[in-house]
Backbone:
């Protein structure tokens, strides 16, 4: 069972490469129960979008 | 068009004030630009090259270049060269957004060139993380779960902030707070679009190290935005 620290690490890694099915399942399970990590995920997603805008790639 | 040939004034083409290296930005004799474009440019291209449009574009480009090169003079040179290339090819642009996309892609390539050169001939090593990750670490308890008071909050519909100039000031400030090495890795990934495999090859670090660095950079950045922007209401 993942803790929040490992979850944030995997959520970040997921922005850069695809994760194994097992890891994706573990992530999904954790996210279902944890609003903090759900918010973390949305936040880094937003940061990615902001970076695209910042580099002129709207 | 080659980036390198486009960097210099082309004989026979009048060079407007905003391209002059001696002209300080925002203060140049922009009126020079008003001279008629040589061929029959469409209205879109003229709008795209209006004084206000160029000033705004230049501002965004400088901000982008400065952040990654961390050196004012190098950033200004890169921006000038990208704008000069765009000016030479000015008749080809249908409008402002097309110009922006194009000129930023030139700028990104310039920055990549400069960063590569620096990696090959490092004048000094990058300052790695200074252990300031303590702040991120302290968000978790001993079991690695969020402390109740420190959980990431709901930012609502943050994309509306992307049109807010004040937001971008904070965004830049937060990026500036990253140490040099995480900032470099982060911008290669998120601004220049490198794959992590390419980043480690360029910087001579392992891929897992690259993920750790990116994760730290994102965590610091989101914490900074949360504190400095989203918690401020
Ligand atoms: Zn969690």
Residues:
């Amino acid at each position: 069972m993942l803790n929040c620290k490992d979850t944030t690490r995997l959520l970040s890694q997921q922005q850069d490469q695809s994760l194994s099915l097992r890891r994706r399942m573990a992530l999904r399970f954790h996210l279902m129960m944890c609003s903090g990590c759900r918010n973390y995920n949305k936040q880094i997603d937003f940061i990615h979008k902001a970076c695209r805008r910042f580099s002129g790639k709207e | 068009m080659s980036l390198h040939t486009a960097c210099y004034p082309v004989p026979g083409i009048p060079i407007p004030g905003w391209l002059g290296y001696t002209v300080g930005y925002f203060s140049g004799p922009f009126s020079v630009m008003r001279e008629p474009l040589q061929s029959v440019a469409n209205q879109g291209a003229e709008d795209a090259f209006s004084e206000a449009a160029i000033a705004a574009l230049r501002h965004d480009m400088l901000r982008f270049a400065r952040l990654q090169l961390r050196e004012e003079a190098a950033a200004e040179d890169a921006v000038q060269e990208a704008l000069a290339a765009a000016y030479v090819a000015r008749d080809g642009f249908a409008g402002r957004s097309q110009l922006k996309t194009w000129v930023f892609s030139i700028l990104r390539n310039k920055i990549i060139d400069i960063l590569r050169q620096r990696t090959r001939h490092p004048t000094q090593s990058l300052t790695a993380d200074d252990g300031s990750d303590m702040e991120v670490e302290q968000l978790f308890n001993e079991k690695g779960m969020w402390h109740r008071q420190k959980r990431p909050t709901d930012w609502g519909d943050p994309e509306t902030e992307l049109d807010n100039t004040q937001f971008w000031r904070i965004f830049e400030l937060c990026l500036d707070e990253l140490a040099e090495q995480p900032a470099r890795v982060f911008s290669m990934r998120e601004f220049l679009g490198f794959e992590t495999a390419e980043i480690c090859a360029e910087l001579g670090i392992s891929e897992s190290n690259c993920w750790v660095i990116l994760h730290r950079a994102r965590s610091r950045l989101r914490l900074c935005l949360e504190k400095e922007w989203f918690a401020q209401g």
